[in-house]
Amino acid sequence: MTVAHRERVVRAATSSFLAHGYRSSVDEIARRAGVAKQTVYHHFPSKDELFKEVARDLTQRVMVELESPPQDLREGLLRFALVYRQRTLGAQGISAFRTLVPEVPRFRGVARAMYASSVGEMVRRLAEWFAGAMDAGRLRREDPVFAAEMFLSMLAGLDRVKRLFSVSDEAESEARRTARIIDCFLRMLEK
Amino acid sequence: MTVAHRERVVRAATSSFLAHGYRSSVDEIARRAGVAKQTVYHHFPSKDELFKEVARDLTQRVMVELESPPQDLREGLLRFALVYRQRTLGAQGISAFRTLVPEVPRFRGVARAMYASSVGEMVRRLAEWFAGAMDAGRLRREDPVFAAEMFLSMLAGLDRVKRLFSVSDEAESEARRTARIIDCFLRMLEK
DNA sequence: CTTCTGGTAGACTGGTCAGTCTAGTTGGAG
DNA sequence: CTCCAACTAGACTGACCAGTCTACCAGAAG
């Protein structure tokens, strides 16, 4: 029935776009969905619209929730960081990035909205979290938005670039590297 | 003559690839170079090879030299940071990133080499610079490579993502933001 | 003067692809 | 039973494009 078909199309499109970017052909997507090409066009007016839908889905996948009551600051950040790094630096996150980034100029409005609803929103929440810790006197007073931006940059700045350029990461384990980044970050915000 | 033509082809290809990514057609490139299509194929065996040449050029453009004798640490880093940010976050740097990143899977070897000779090399030099300052007792002892990686991440982590997603930066001036990042970074490495 | 090299214009091949169209099938609602 | 909506396979159009080919031209070297 209709909803299930739409779902299958979106799933097939997602995996196809992740693998080959916008280059994926509609024929290929229909084939992978086990569906006639016409069915794709029955649910989506054009390849572009299908792509936008997939893009929105992909973008939402990086969102990570922050547990609000931070009893142990370091522990809270660590938990967040591990998930965030896994989502953004994992094979799928990197593929998504590769797929979305080159198409931004053709979809500026959508792209901005996608950023705002994912990374932008996460900056906002992190900033709030930091502001709380600062108010409680557990962190040095600083611009919390700036702190949040630095935090995310440290977690997925150069490491993302490395992966985007297919550079294998050195031997350090994920857990160790993440902890190291957190400690480094906290040193900046110590009172 | 031959060398001049080759140059014009590369320049035209560069601006075309920057604008439309790998999608640019060879016809278009030849037209922009004011040259026959055959001339393009006279100098390059295929579009892929032309692309690789352009990619290598683009990658080298982010390289920034570091003055080796750091009398004033903050001043030295600031000078470096301003240029680095301008190169990586400027319109051209962002376009280059958008152009290169999606093609990495088709050119893994070349991509790795490009990373190594640009960003990788810069990490190496920065690390050396930091190591020197640590030896001189002007910075807290830390893993200098890790410090260099964090430094570059902070300079172009989230800000690059924002620009890649066409998110206009808030009102803060480049100079102010850069200085703020440097100060934040140095606080981590204070003795 | 001839020959060779690097250049020109532009036609052509073979392939891919978005999107449309035709003609027919199936399953559920009335 | 009939009708309709969603589906199917597959042919088709029009566009684009990498790469080749033909036929021609200009200038420098011998």
Keywords:
191 residues; 10 helices; DNA-binding; elongated; homodimer; mainly alpha
Write the layout of secondary structure elements.
The structure is a homodimer of 191-residue chains.
Chain A: H1 2-20, H2 26-33, H3 37-43, H4 47-60, H5 73-89, H6 91-100, H7 108-135, H8 144-156, H9 158-164, H10 174-189
Helix pairs in contact in A: 1-2, 1-4, 1-6, 4-7, 5-6, 5-10, 7-8, 8-9, 8-10
The structure holds a DNA duplex (30 and 30 nucleotides).
Share in β-strands of chain A? under 5%
Describe the largest sheet of chain A.
none
In whole angstroms, how far apart are the ends of chain A?
Answer: 60 Å
Oligomeric state of shown chains: homodimer
Rough outline of chain A: elongated
Overall radius of gyration of chain A? 20 Å
Largest interface: A-B, 39 and 39 residues
pLDDT under 50 segments of chain A (min length 5)? none
Number of strands of chain A: 0
**Helix proportion of chain A:** over 70%
User: Which class do the helix and strand fractions of chain A yield?
Assistant: mainly alpha
Order of helices and strands of chain A: HHHHHHHHHH
Average per-residue pLDDT of chain A, rounded, comes to: 92
The helix tally of chain A amounts to 10
